[in-house]
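Escalation from tier 1.

The customer reports that the assembly of two entities below gives different structure tokens on two consecutive runs. Tier 1 could not reproduce it. I'm attaching the input and our single run for tier 2 to review.
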Amino acid sequence: MLDALVGGLLLILQWKAFSLMLVGMGVGFVVGLLPGIGGAATLALMLPFVFTMSPVEAFAFLLGMHSVAATTGDITSILFGVPGEGLSAATVVDGHPMAKRGEAGRALGAALASSLVGALIGAATLAISIPIVRPLVLTFGSPELFMVTMMGIACITSLSGLGARAQVKGFAMGFLGLLLSTIGQERQSGTLRFDFGQTYLWEGLDLIPVLVGIFAVPEIIDLAVRGTAIAGDRAAGKLGAGVWEGVKDTFRHFWLVIRCSAVGVFVGILPGAGGGVAQWMAYAHAVQSAKDATDRARFGKGDVRGVLGPGAANNSKEGGDLIPTIAFGVPGSGAMAILLGAFMIMGLLPGPDMLTKHLTVTYSMVWTLVLANVITVLLCLALLKHLAKVTQIRGGLIIPLILFLVFVGSYTANRQIADLVVTLAAGGLGYLMVRFGWPRAPLVLGFVLGKLAETYLFISVARYGYDWLTRPLVLLLMALTAVVIAYPFIQERRRGGLARRAHAD
Amino acid sequence: MRISGRAVFSLVLAAVAAFAVVSALAWPLKAALFPLVMGIPLCLLALAQLVLDLRGAGRGAAGGPPMDLEPSAGVPPEIARRRTLAVFGWMAGFILLVLFVGFPAAVPLFVFAYLRFQSAAGWGLALVLTAAAWGFFYVLFERVLRFPFEAGLVQTWLGL
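Tier 1 run:
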């Protein structure tokens, strides 16, 4: 195994594979920065280029591109409040308020450093777990996977705000997200739901236009209303000054970064749940790990922990994603499904062969993840001071540039004008939600998880009847879900009790 | 009695949920189950929020602040409303432009028009930024990614 590990490194360091990895990283770097255009879409567009490459070169090119897009997507999210791609939306919630406060450098430093830690943990998990992961994945059937999505939805509670009334809004938005995910043709019976006679809606709403609209449009409007630069009138010198502070934050909250990386790996391993889910679950975990209600209130206002959690999970899930893809040929996400296409093009069969005959190729993928992320983060850290200055440019000059990128990004979803209309409508909804104090994150999480939850529920009922409810792992996950829902209330009560006791003393 | 925007939003949300539930009742159980399970609690929660909004109107009905973007304060409401509507207008205009002339032509036209007429940028700056935006768009989407953009209605009518 050690031979294969070293062999994988040597393969990736060959000049052609290494050069192709750098080319892929260059494309991924730019694509990651663009609002809405995700690594998966770029993987699909770049797939035809790999026909003439060897397997190691092809995976260096594709994986280099994909892993970098997740990292640079955070930069757009933080600087402009516009998700660089679907995987970076959670970073907006705390990263952009930091940029508006003049702490863009610190937020970027934290996002990049946590991304690197997450990527290394993901790669290490991939390297270690390849031989032992089989029993774990096989333990999770549809009932368990359904309960995992329910647990993700329960995390909505912690994403909503403080107090019971905020929880009402959080749950309502979560349900609205789940309801929006039901638009389109129902897969089992073929029934058309909420299509209003529009063929565009038969496939359901695409994530990208919805996500970009809900997050980008309110931020753009806020920028236009203020009539200033993103960072207001803050001095130029301060903006990039906190880069190292952000890097240090990663190590100040190292245990949180490790836990969120583990969340990312775990979600990555689960088939169907992509990075979009991983980052929100990590964000929810970061919020729930706050000491008390006062501490929790800092989230959403520019708390660096809200940047560290999603940043780490975003990149660690790459390693997790690759585990079922390589070991069983079961893609963990849309991007991995496209990567599976690359396996086919290369004539490789995912499964036992990748763990025996082609183990060196498998380890070359691990090394690609490591090298691509280390190089990107070092490059970004060198450029951050200049990037942070973008937040000082007059808003009026930036808005048209962001707007055209937002709409181009949305258009890449289905190449239809309707994508743009959905973006505008989602933007209108997002604006009203912000204006009337409804949280956007639960809606997005519900929307992301909706299709998965419905599919897993259907398979569970069809395969096991109602017996699926009594499976031990399902019961364990149910209990965990109940704890996730009840935890903020218990915390609130305990805090109230302590305050009363202190007052009585 | 004056009904606040918050209450109207809650009411619309409840109405959307009710519409979803009523629509789902007409479908086979397989297709209806999930929308019903999601729509009913959404309707109840939105109604609960509506009651809270109506009872608390005018005395801080929002409850705790959400963990989300908070609109910037300090801008007079009339100016904020005008600027908000302007952005929505520009976005709608951009979509119409894409529909009529397609993305490759709409991008430079939109960027230039916004910079010149909305942001009051000088001719030189507007032209330089427009050229930069179009160059970036052309190199990345047309040359590198070779992304297939649909032609606009005008090009289709003219047979271009």
